[in-house]
């Protein structure tokens, strides 16, 4: 048991660290190649916090643990909204002014409904996995095109562009890019192996371990990004990290088990856990898009979100 805990903690720490270095190297290298900062901000920086979920999903799928991969995606999306935004909102009201976010949030809801339809029959097929990936590429293409051609300045795009490292030598950027690419799959494997060992000791299902320990662990980069964004008064970037990560998870990351290890899905994933993803995503949309002129997440919203997270985790372990 101690060895499994060590594997889990070491894997998690290495996963978060290597994801950060991967994004740092990739963003700096892309900037040195002359790519527009807005383009880099809307792609590499925006999706970088989902790198842990992507590599964990790939590792679990290659080992035949489809439910763990799916649980990681659903659990991460739930944790991002309830735990991460809950903690962040406690630091102070979070305001939203970005037009990009007002487009991405409805996209997140539509994508969630599509995934619900795919999971409804208890199977995730390779065709469905490929469809999710194609849809993700199409949505990203649209957002990038709109961001580059829009005449109006957007707070989210500008804040994301400011996060790109500048004046980094190309050799240094490539070094960290390679370090991240090597350590990400290794650390993901350590984390999955440790989590599986713990799950077996406590007789937890592959789905539950993905929804709990792994999901919370892979959401830590979002927590760091959100807290940093709020402290720097970059509220749109804080919310954007969550919405962008959830959109990336539900389309690109969930496509991985569909493509690598298609097959039957735990019935709870397509009912209890999907409904929780839909409910929390809908709640975020209501709070952000239908909250009048303010368009704010307030500290009391954070309290409600945290209570929701705790109640859901209790349900998973007691059911």
Question: What are the main properties of this structure?
Answer:
319 residues, two-stranded antiparallel ribbon, 4 strands, calcium, potassium:sodium antiporter activity, Calcium/sodium antiporter, K/Na/Ca-exchanger, calcium channel activity
Please identify the structural class as seen in this structure: mainly alpha
Number of strands: 4
Taking pLDDT < 50 over at least 5 consecutive residues as the criterion, the unreliable ranges are none
Rg on CA atoms, Å: 18 Å
Question: Mean pLDDT across all residues, rounded?
Answer: 83
- The first-to-last residue Cα distance is 23 Å
* DSSP helix fraction: over 70%
Largest sheet: 2 strands, antiparallel
% residues in beta strands: under 5%
Overall geometric form: globular
Number of helices: 13
- The H-and-E topology, N to C, reads as HHHHEHEHHHHHHEHEH
Strands across the major sheet, in which order? 1-4
Report on the architecture of this protein.
With 319 residues, the chain is mainly α. It has 13 helices and four strands. It has helices spanning 2-32, 37-48, 51-62, 66-90, 99-119, 126-149, 155-162, 170-201, 206-218, 220-231, 235-260, 267-289, 299-318; strands spanning 94-95, 123-124, 263-264, 296-297. Helix 5 (99-119) packs antiparallel against helix 6. The longest helix is centred in the middle third of the chain and has 32 residues, at 170-201. The radius of gyration is 18 Å and the shape is globular. The two termini are 23 Å apart. The model has no long low-confidence stretch (mean pLDDT 83).
């Amino acid at each position: 048991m101690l060895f499994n805990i060590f594997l889990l903690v070491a894997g998690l720490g290495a996963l978060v660290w290597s994801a950060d270095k991967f994004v740092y190297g990739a963003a700096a290298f892309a900037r040195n190649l002359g790519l527009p900062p807005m383009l880099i901000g809307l792609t590499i920086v925006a999706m970088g916090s989902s790198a842990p979920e992507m590599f964990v999903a790939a590792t679990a799928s290659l080992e035949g643990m489809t439910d763990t991969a799916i649980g990681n995606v659903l659990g991460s999306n739930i944790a991002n909204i309830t735990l991460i935004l809950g903690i962040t909102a406690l630091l102070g009201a979070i305001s939203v002014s970005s037009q990009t976010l007002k487009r991405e949030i409805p996209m997140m809801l539509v994508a969630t409904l599509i995934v619900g339809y795919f999971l409804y029959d208890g199977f995730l097929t390779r065709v469905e996995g490929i469809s999710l990936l194609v849809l993700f590429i199409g949505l990203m293409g649209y957002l990038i095109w709109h961001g580059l051609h829009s005449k109006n300045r957007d707070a989210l795009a500008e804040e994301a562009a400011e996060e790109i490292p500048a004046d980094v030598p190309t050799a240094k950027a490539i070094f960290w890019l390679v370090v991240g690419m090597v350590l990400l799959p290794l650390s993901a494997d350590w984390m999955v192996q440790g989590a599986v060992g713990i799950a077996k000791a406590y007789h937890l299902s592959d789905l539950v371990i993905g929804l709990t320990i792994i999901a919370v662990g892979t959401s830590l980069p979002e927590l760091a990004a959100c807290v940093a964004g709020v402290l720097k008064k970059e509220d749109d970037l804080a919310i954007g990290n969550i919405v962008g990560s959830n959109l990336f998870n539900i389309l690109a990351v969930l496509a991985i088990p569909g493509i690598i290890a298609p097959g039957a899905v735990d019935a709870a994933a397509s009912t209890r856990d999907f409904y929780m993803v839909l409910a929390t995503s809908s709640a975020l949309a209501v709070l952000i898009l239908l909250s009048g002129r303010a368009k704010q997440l307030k500290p009391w919203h954070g309290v409600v979100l945290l209570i929701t997270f705790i109640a859901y985790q209790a349900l998973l372990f007691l059911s």
